[in-house]
Request: fold
Amino acid sequence: MNFINESTLTEIQNYRYATKLFDRTKTIPAKTWAAIEQSLIDSPSSYGLQPWKFVVITDPAIKKAIRPQTWNQSQTEDASHYLVICAKEKMDSAHVAKFIDRMVEVRGGDRAALAGYEKMMNGDVVTGPRSQVSFEWAARQCYIALGNFMTSCALVGVDTCPIEGFVPGEYDKILGLEGSGWRSVVCCAAGYRSADDKYAGMKKVRFEKKDLIINK
Ligand SMILES: Cc1cc2nc3c(=O)[nH]c(=O)nc-3n(C[C@H](O)[C@H](O)[C@H](O)COP(=O)(O)O)c2cc1C
Reply:
């Protein structure tokens, strides 16, 4: 395993910033995108249930259509790829069963041995107290995928801008999600910064370490 060293980690964290102005002439190469996309798929989630879908927009017509529903932010149209992370509206036993089936498919073994795990998941997010808030729970998982996506992009030199400034209900209409059981939660534009983006050179504004880290 080729790990990066500590100074490279800090440099990359500093290099990453919420890109306001993308260079619309630059496209993420297919090989790079494939690796980034895999990072979405490999993102961790509670129980491993993956209560998400990832809509990847590259079609200029769809990018144009979502812009007015994104506070007119130019990243929608200028970025190479525009990601919309969607959460499952209501967790159900069919999704849990599909996950258990997949575990058996990938790892082999006896499905019956996973019955306890399946029952526990169902008893929590499908019928238990958390079932009342299963969309919010799923949405929280989406933010984990978002963080993993942004860091993965940064590691391969791709710029991003996370985007919450959008109208989820309107996105759901444009993307044909209405009635699908999935709802858009958070977005992320990905591509390459424009040389004219003045935000790239700005210092990060973060509270001091003493205000954030509590050592015990
Ligand atoms: C969940 C989330 C939603 C955000 N939504 C927007 C957005 O709609 N538009 C935008 O320009 N920046 C957006 N940002 C970027 C933040 O303003 C930015 O990350 C923060 O100011 C820190 O700056 P930095 O990322 O450049 O270090 C969002 C960030 C996060 C994490």
Q: What stands out?
A: The domain at 6-87+142-212 is CATH 3.40.109.10 (NADH Oxidase). The first helix runs from residue 6 to 15. The two ends are 32 Å apart (CA to CA). The chain has a mean pLDDT of 98.
